[in-house]
Amino acid sequence: MKKSLLSLLLLSSLLLLGGTRRIEAQDDSRITVNVVLVQLNVAVTDRKGNYVTGLKPEDFAITEDKIPERIATFEEGNEPTTRLVIGPDGKMVAQPVVAESDTATAAEGGVRPGGQGTTGANVFILFDTSNYMYRGFVFAQDSIADFIRSLEGVGRTAFYSYSRDLSRAVPLTPDRGAVLRGVRSTVAGDDAALYNSLLLTVKDAARLTGRKAIVVFSNGPDNASLVPPEDVAELAQSTGTIIYMISTRDAQAEPISTAVFERMSKATGGKAYFSKSWKDEKDAFASIREDLAHLYALSYYPAANVNRGWRSISVKLVGEAAQKYRIRTRDGYRVLKQPQVASAAPPPAASSEAEIQPQQ
């Protein structure tokens, strides 16, 4: 009961701004997510693992529960977002998306919702400052600082740290210097509540449109959270937030954490890295940087679908590219029938509802 209560308390305040999706408490036991626009981060590589660039919207085919979906917006790497509309001649036309000004500040953490036209990803860095990190604290700061300096083309960066509690040291900002100062100001602390802190970070990222990613730098297992990692992964899936995990522990030394990190990152379309040395950690950061720079961001409004449970998403390439290249992205999200609530206006025709159910 204690675990369920804390999960509920952490999730019940979730509110997504900007109109693309909304998370709200429906009763005393669950959180629901109204999904109007499904966002996907898609990595395309050849058989040698090299990133493939220059693909167009017509090169991708998306289905949800085998129902074909029409791409609404498209973005490659750090290029501006384009909106796909049907022209007078019935053909698809790409239109640039004009950046919208930030109109509201989230009450928690000072995060502003990103405008639809924001170029580049929004990246949250979550740094483990628990007592697990004492021995290599300065080296970890150096690795993160180098990563931040290398993030060319990223729209905005936030730097958070955690031990028993989450510290939003630097909210999302385009000011790289402010983020670097935040890294240097951190101090090592208490036990590690990774999943509690990651859940709150996903909540902040969920308010944003476009590409959003969380990079977790961890030096040990979670020993203080009351939120199960499955809840975190499901919320990240439902809000289109990609999670990368970097662990300073060898995968064989922490088999339980290793399995959790791998499942969570894979479920969101990200990757997990397990480093034996500081060089391995820098290599992991370099790999994430390259991934962020080469992701395709696709979105679509879900077609009518009677399935109110888990919806499977399939992204494939068409034509010659289908045989030559490989795709990595999230594989779906969970939905639930919308509760019958009296309302003066009908819900959006394209909306669906994803449930985050705290574990008992």
List keywords for this structure.
six-stranded antiparallel β-sheet; single chain; 360 residues; 8 helices; Rossmann fold
Q: What is the number of independent domains?
A: 2
Strand content: 25-35%
Helical residue percent band: 25-40%
Query: Would you tell me the overall average pLDDT?
Result: 78
Q: Largest beta sheet, briefly?
A: 6 strands, antiparallel
Basic shape? globular
What's the alpha carbon Rg, rounded to whole Å? Answer: 20 Å
CATH class category label of the largest domain: Alpha Beta
Count of DSSP strands: 19
What ranges have pLDDT less than 50 throughout 5 or more consecutive residues?
Answer: 1-33, 100-118, 336-360
CATH names the topology of the largest domain as: Rossmann fold
Which class of secondary structure composition applies to the elements? Answer: alpha+beta
Give the strand line-up of the largest sheet. 8-7-6-15-3-17
Whole-Å distance between the termini? 6 Å
Kindly describe this structure.
The protein has 360 residues and is α+β, with helices and mostly antiparallel strands. It folds into two domains: 102 residues, no CATH class; 181 residues, Rossmann fold (3-Layer(aba) Sandwich), CATH 3.40.50. The protein is 25% helix and 29% strand. The protein is built from eight helices and 19 strands. It starts with a helix and ends with a strand.
SSE layout and pairing:
Layout: H1 2-11, E1 21-25, E2 31-35, E3 38-45, E4 60-64, E5 67-69, E6 71-76, E7 82-86, E8 92-96, E9 122-128, H2 137-149, E10 156-162, E11 166-173, H3 176-184, H4 194-206, E12 212-218, H5 229-239, E13 242-247, H6 255-268, E14 272-274, H7 278-294, E15 296-300, E16 310-317, H8 321-324, E17 326-328, E18 332-334, E19 352-356
Parallel strand pairs: 9-10, 9-12, 12-13, 13-14
Antiparallel strand pairs: 1-2, 2-19, 3-15, 3-17, 4-5, 4-16, 6-7, 6-15, 7-8, 10-11, 16-18
